[in-house]
Design goal:
This protein is mainly alpha-helical and about 160 residues long. It has seven helices and three strands. Strand 2 and strand 3 form a beta hairpin. The chain starts with a helix and ends with a helix.
Length: about 160
């Protein structure tokens, strides 16, 4: 991916920063000097990634019967907590580390479900803002509360 595109997505240095942070954490672990090849770091990274997949699968099992996917749930959770129930697509994709095309697809699904609508950004007319629909605001909906409550135990 070209550097300019990465910067436009707001993630130009994110992987490098995260790798540096992991390396710093690893260097502070007792016994890390005894592992110059980084095998323990590789194992820890693998376990973290595997744990994330397990948690995502559990959350998906809980929210799928409610007509939600993990990305849709994440977008709704961000919008429910956002001021006025709205965020720009750019802010949403940055918060979720999501590719712009994937964010667009997720937003189209949420719009089709009547959960969000889009409007042009106030400053940048090329950009869009996602808004929770007032008629289907998840914060006021029983299925939203059910999904939110069910996700907690799925994380344990």
């Amino acid at each position: 991916m070209p550097a300019s595109r990465s910067r436009a997505n707001g993630r130009a240095n994110a992987p490098a920063l995260e790798a540096a942070r992991l390396e710093r954490i690893y260097d502070e672990l007792p016994g890390s000097a005894d592992d110059p090849e980084g095998g323990a770091l590789a194992m820890a990274s693998t376990l973290i990634l595997r744990s994330a997949r397990v948690i995502t699968a559990r959350v998906d099992e809980v929210i799928a019967p409610l007509g939600l996917s993990v990305p849709k749930f994440e977008v709704l959770a961000l919008l429910v907590t956002a001021p006025n129930g709205e965020m720009s697509f750019a802010d949403l994709k940055r918060a979720m580390y999501m590719h712009p095309a994937t964010m667009g697809h997720t937003m189209r699904l949420l719009e089709a479900d009547g959960l969000v609508k889009r409007r042009p950004h106030d400053v940048d007319r090329r950009a869009y803002v996602a808004i929770l629909t007032s008629a289907r605001n998840p914060a006021c909906s029983p299925w939203w509360r059910e999904a939110s409550v069910a996700v907690g135990p799925a994380l344990v």
